[in-house]
Amino acid sequence: MKAIVNYENGPEKVKCMDVEMPVPSAGQVRIKVSYCGICGTDLHIFEGDGGYPTNPPVILGHELSGVVESAGEGTDPFWIGKRVVSETYYHTCGHCMYCKTGKGNLCPEKRSIGSAVNGAMAEYVVVPEKNLHLIPEGISLREAAMTEPLACCVQGVLEFGDIVPGDRVLITGPGAIGLMCLQVAVSAGAVVVMAGTAVDQERLELAKTLGASEVIYSDKPDGEEKIAALCAPFGPDVVFDCSGAGAAIRMGLRAVRKGGRYVQVGLTGRSVELDMNLITLKELSVRGTYAQKPQWWVKALDLVRRGEVKLEPLISNVCLLEDWEKAFDGYQRKIGFKYLLEAAGENK
After folding, report:
1. Does the model's pTM come out above 0.90?
2. Which CATH number fits domain 151-288: 3.30.420.40, 3.40.1190.10, 3.40.50.720, 3.40.50.300?
């Protein structure tokens, strides 16, 4: 089968290869992949910048939708032929303090598809049966392939943002993750200002249609003044940085009100210099959010099913597996929003 493989560590050590078909073991299923999304972590892996570790040779990809094609011993035959998405953790230990408290995303032994073990930028992928979620009727396979990043956003916004209706929220970074966080925050009753730079004009325009009350260009001289005016008198109650850019992170910490909440959603890929006095003197609550817990997959699918989060407008392009370089290039150059790789020909 065809697959996109990170064949060794280092910059641009990725190519499309023919690999062996995976075989499900006991408790596992094999999914015929329909679509696999390209994530910022995939770009970090491609660029070899150390922003996300891998265990090469390994097939990339962890944002998938597809149909269960076969199953290993001990699995429920119910799943055969079902449209599904899959959580990304191939293995967690199940007995550490993180696993026992529902935080398997922090398990020291966690191994995920697309980095530690073979992922879904391929025609088929093997995952544990316990990771599966049925795709509700009315949600396309294209949309469903974005459930994983949406679940990350739902966790960041609802678990760590502590949003209450009427909160004023600033989101920096209007890429796909930022636009998902926007919609989740609006669904929770927040009033959202979306910030980007001159290269984000198309993205900021889409933000308006997806619920942003205002958009601002943070790279303009009066960018921070506009944020302060829009969130008067004290500033945003909550800031979510979805860009991973040092300038945006520093701006967010300056903008958030005293006693406010700051949540880091985007990965930076490198160290970022910060003024820690902003955190101390403003008594900020600063949180990071990493991956997602199982309950947020359920919430993510429900938000899409109810139409409170729209994913189809975020899809910029769908490329075949063998055209992966075109998709990666578009993502790197911030052309459009979300790129999907199609693995199974005609999909619905």
Report:
1. yes
2. 3.40.50.720
**Which residue in the block uniquely carries the two structure tokens 């300056």?**
254
Distances (CA, A) of 123 to 32, 225, 344: 6, 50, 6
Q: What is the full per-residue pLDDT of the chain (348 aa) written as tens digits? A: 999 999 999 999 999 999 999 999 999 999 999 999 999 889 889 988 776 788 899 999 999 999 999 999 999 999 999 999 999 999 999 999 999 999 999 999 999 999 999 999 999 999 999 999 999 999 999 999 999 999 999 999 999 999 999 999 999 999 999 999 999 999 999 999 999 999 999 999 999 999 999 999 999 999 999 999 999 999 999 999 999 999 999 999 999 999 999 999 998 878 899 999 999 999 999 999 999 999 999 999 999 999 999 999 999 999 999 999 999 999 888 888 899 999 865 554
Fold classification of 2-146+311-342 (topology level): Quinone Oxidoreductase; Chain A, domain 1 (3.90.180)
Would you say how long the chain is, in residues?
A: 348
* Residue 287 DSSP SS3: strand
> CA–CA separation, 68 vs 81, rounded Å?
5
Q: How far apart are CA 63 and CA 3, in angstroms?
A: 14
CB neighbour burial string for 217-232, b if at least 16 within 10 angstroms, e if fewer: bbeeeebbebbbebbe
Q: Position 45: which residue type?
A: I
**Exposed / middle / buried, residue 317 (Cβ in 10 Å: 0-12, 13-18, 19+):** middle
Quick count: other Cβ atoms within 10 Å of Cβ 39? 25
The β-bridge partners of 15 are 5
**What ranges do the domains of the chain cover?**
2-146+311-342, 151-288
